Amino acid sequence: QVQLVESGGGLVQAGGSLRLSCVASGRTFSAFNMGWFRQAPGKERDIVAGISWSGASTYYADSVKGRFTISRDNSKNTVYLEMNSLKPEDTAVYYCNLGGSLATIGPYRGQGTQVTVSS
Known about the structure:
By secondary structure, this protein is mainly β. It has strands at 3-7, 10-13, 18-25, 34-39, 46-51, 58-60, 68-73, 78-83, 92-98, 108-109, 113-118.
């Protein structure tokens, strides 16, 4: 059974930063691509970023390129999303996911963490 637990969300002013973390258990973490997607109320899910099992390859949605950085620490079964220069349109529930390709949502996801950016 795969478990993904996100943390690090919160309320931040526009231009601020947050760092999301996601700890995985139940699978060989280092064997799988990981990623983050988000969903705002009334909107579809959007891929935000993905990272290969080794960390050598990454993917970013155009909307977050240059502002967000995805990374992973396989020794801690953890994937991170560093978010800088946050904008109100980044407001959403952010989910980590396991097992997809870099630009698709994998079959496993966590419970999500709320990110709210005030203007």
